[in-house]
Amino acid sequence: MTKWQKFLFDVQNHIKALDLIGCDIPFFRGHSNGSWELLCGLGRSSKAKKYRYIESTLYHDFLALAGPLLDDANSPWDTLFAMQHHGLPTRLLDWSHTFSVALYFALKPYLNVKSRPSIPTAELPCIWMLNPFALNKASMNDDSIFNPHTDLEVNYWDVYINEKKKFPTDVVALNPTQTSRRLAVQRSGFTFHNEIDAPLEQKYSDLVRKFVIPAAAIPEALSFLTLAGVNEYSLYPDLDGLARYLMIRHM
Question: Which of 42, 74, 120, 188 has the fewest Cβ atoms surrounding its Cβ within 10 A?
Fold first, then answer.
């Protein structure tokens, strides 16, 4: 059994174990550096921690300047998801329902590697797997994955921009309406973090599991992604994504 086969075997066994306890939609997240914590963008941003109002400033400026590019019917949640997917720090942490999507993001720095790369052990890429049902059971006493548009009594604007209400818990797993092509093709799920400084793997260590990808497994893993048709253009189905895909493939 190769290192890649052993890695897949361990992942598949954990998926089966989760399914036996009622988790038929695990969340996957890829980190290209295994030392990174499961923190949302605002939690990783030193400016967000230093300046109290950076969150509302980013939201207002994005909404004002991106107006022509956004759907007129966008809710505050939709605006937040758009901010996240276009690189702004938010209270969201990206996950996917699809293992291969997480694997692509874990291996993105190594897409042109042809042989085993040299990587410090602590910085090997990894896949995190989360049981979102158990997370919401622990944080909200409800073992379902919430659609923020329909299942939460508060919305993002009221709590964090208008500051008229409070969010009911520290973290929650979300399965949003797939309103954009990026959300749809990446099979996106999110964890939403009311407490931005607390890494998910610390407070809920029994609900997440980390699978380190050995350096020797990376060439086979990249072949797997090619076979599965997962690439920059399949995950970012626009002209920018196509251009990046062609650069990676040919240049």
Answer: 120
